[in-house]
Amino acid sequence: MNESTALLTQSSDVTAFLAELGKYAFVFRLILAAVLVLVGLVGARAFLALFHKLREKLASHLPEWVQILIDGFADPVILFVRCLLWYCAFLALPWPANWTVNLTGASTTVLSIIIALLLTRGLWNSAGLCGLLLRSTQNKLDLATNKTMNLFFEKIYRALVFLFGCIQVLTILGFDVNALIAGAGVVGIAVSLGAQSTLSNLIAGVALVIERPFGIGDWIVLSSCEGMVEDISFRSTRIRALDNSVVTVENSKVSAEYICNTTTRSNRLFQCTIGLTYDTPREKLAKICTDLKDMMNADEQVITGSAEATLSAFGASSIDIDVRCYVTALGGPAFRAMTDKLNWKIMDLVAADGCDFAFPSTTVYFSQTENPPVPRS
Predict the structure, then answer these.
(1) At 341, which helix (H) or strand (E)?
(2) 132-160 burial string, b = 16+ CB within 10 Å, else e?
(3) pTM of the prediction?
(4) Quick one: DSSP state of residue 43?
């Protein structure tokens, strides 16, 4: 009897204690929510620092594709941990009982959308997998120095990742994705009929990337412009022109033109014609041709033995000497600097050899008769 009385007394004490604690449940839940928010703000940064230290230690033991994924998902994982802690803090708040079900469902939906967006972001940051895949096929595709295809496929990869993220968010929100895709197919047919130029530009862009008549960083000459290629997108190609402006040309127009890629050649032809006056002696003409060849062959940017200086024609006002050589300056700015240097040397050489440049001139001869004609009346 005494034992039963003792047990009843203890249970009543526990019940009273729990009832007393229930009075402070509101405060406890507020404190718990505040702690979770604080851990989300501060603890996530500490977790990020620990994550990077662990990544540095394991870097030499992990394959490259794993390292790319780790780097791509580093920030999304930290954001996920922070959002998860804040989600728990939101649920720990002392909401009214009639709000709990609705708030729990809404917050769970928001957390699911955040997870889908963070997954999309991680995949977006892992676009380096495209370059790794292309490097693995280097022997077949010869991509050792070509970054054009890598950038182009990264854009395609990120477009697919963005589409994946949109589908995931729509699915979480309760939309019928299959119906949307079917409707998009019908709309796509209608849009494609009015966007044939865009489709042709896309096909031309793929052809430019696969055939590779030029790459990013190459100096090309088109009929409409000349400059360095800065980017090749789905629709157009951006070219940095001679005046440092950016020219955007549709891919279909680029494919339809004759493309001169000056970067792919190993040397470039320098050629000019100098005209000397007709009173220049034969000996000086022979000497200046010899001196011109020696001067060009002595230049370090001239291909050895490629210099030529020949008497090419007798012009209307000058004796023409054709000067040509092959130089190693390939790009536009480098070649213009080389041309400037050689032209100055040619001017100095002509003056040093005692010759003069000719210019267009006309000689008029007057004849006078002894008995001028008598005018008739």
Answers:
(1) helix 332-352
(2) eebeeeeeeeebeebebbbbbbbbebbee
(3) 0.45
(4) I
Q: How many helices (H) and strands (E) does the chain have?
A: 13, 8
Rounded-to-integer distance, Cα 303 and Cα 296, Å: 9
As a whole number of angstroms, the distance between CA 122 and CA 156 comes to: 16
276 against 180, higher pLDDT? 276
Under 8 Å CB-to-CB from 373, ≥6 apart: which residues?
none
CATH architecture for residues 213-261: Roll (2.30)
Choices 3.40.50.800, 2.40.50.150, 3.30.70.100, 3.40.50.720: CATH for 268-352: 3.30.70.100
Q: What are φ and ψ of residue 104, in 5° steps?
A: -65, -45
User: Tens digit of pLDDT for each residue in 24-52?
Assistant: 566 777 777 777 777 777 776 777 777 77
Alpha carbon 127 to chain centroid, angstroms: 13
Model pLDDT for residues 220-240, shown as the tens digit of each residue: 888 878 888 888 877 888 899
Tokens of 294: 């020696």
